Amino acid sequence: MRHMPPLTDLQSRDPNVLKVNASRLPTVQMLEIAASTPVSRAEHLIREAFFHKLRAVKAIRLENDIDSSTPSLDFTFINEFVLRDGVVRADPETNGGCQNPCRPNMGQHIGCEYAKQCTCLEYAAVNEQALEREDPHLYRYYMQRKQQDSRIDTDSRIDMKKLPKRFPYQKAGQDNRVPSTLQTFYRESRNAIYECNPNCNCGPVCKSRLVQKGRKVPLTIFKTLNRGWGVKCDEDLIQGEFIDTYLGEVITNEEADRREAKAGKDKASYLYSLDKFVNEENGLTEDDCYVVDGQHMGGPTRFINHCCEPNCRQYTVSYNKYDFRIYDLAFFAIENIPAGKELTFDYMDKDEEEEEDVIRKREVAANDPENTEKKPCNCGARKCRGSLWV
């Protein structure tokens, strides 16, 4: 260990340097300076400090036409997950990638033309319409087993690898004016999306690579009238268009519990459990899952607000089908969104409900004495449930 001088030797010998007792802070002089400094000056410096943080990410603006506040400086913008103690990705050797017959020159030179033969899509949703056309007998048997809620992938009569699968994305327009979009089936379901990876033989322009290339649309973090900070896009978004991923520190479930306990029940939560693939077959339990914490580190999507009738949805996107514990949480537009409209998603990720059902539930909740502890929802939607986290 390198020798350190005594603490007294570290003190400045310059007579012009103010020496204070740290146990008596703030000093009278500090308080006088603070009292004489204009609030506007402090607000300006805070705003400039936040602008400096924004430089870590591309195409992000800050806008506040409501007041002079700025988002907390206790936040760091990042461009990828930050893995904390106890968190590991699956061994890279497990991420084999698709090989033959997938090639870069397939499908109008956008790779992976045949979903049925792309091994990256082994666990992807089955294209049932294609299966019915190819093998009506197998289709009827498959649907029968599915309706029985049985383990189709363990059925000896069904080879999942040979069934036709669904590509996740509609390819971009030839003039690049129309971006790649999420296929309707995936947009309207909760099926996991599987993309190719760097070990694949299909090349970097393969049409199944979208989320991994990162955000392409410009976003603005802005101050709302009654819901703190929100996010909007500076250009029109079309239905199915990729927006961005949710980033943060990836921590263990135990660490997430510790942080929640320390924060208290009234503290806003930015925790998302990576529990999409919890099941008995792969041995993953709720306690084994990792959690993404976006409170102090993340991207612009950390500021997206809740709405009971959202215009965005969060989807599971995996680049390694054998890694059940770490994957991306990607936001896509579920409707056409004009430039400048606030982006929202449902924190509870509920399916759409009938308006009369929502009104009835809202009235019941309003008359529930225990409902006073629930945080009110200010989304203003026609089908607003009245409270967050319900």
Question: What descriptors fit this protein?
Answer:
four-stranded mixed β-sheet, alpha/beta, disordered N terminus, 390 residues, globular, single chain
Task: Write up this protein.
There is one protein chain. Helix content is 19%, strand content 15%. It has 390 residues and is α/β, with parallel strands linked by helices. β7 and β8 form a beta hairpin. It has 3 domains: 173 residues, Beta Complex (Beta-clip-like), CATH 2.170.270; 102 residues, no CATH class; 35 residues, no CATH class. The N terminus is likely disordered. The strands form 5 sheets. Strands 1-7-8-17-14 form a 5-stranded mixed beta sheet, with no helix packed on it. Strands 3-10-12-11 form a 4-stranded mixed beta sheet.
What is this structure, in a nutshell?
The chain folds into 3 domains: 48-88 and 214-345, SET domain (Beta-clip-like), CATH 2.170.270; 93-194, no CATH class; 356-390, no CATH class. It is 19% helix and 15% strand. It has helices spanning 7-10, 28-36, 39-54, 128-134, 136-147, 184-187, 253-263, 355-366; strands spanning 60-63, 76-77, 82-83, 169-170, 181-182, 193-194, 219-223, 229-233, 242-245, 249-252, 271-273, 290-293, 297-298, 305-306, 312-318, 328-333, 342-345.
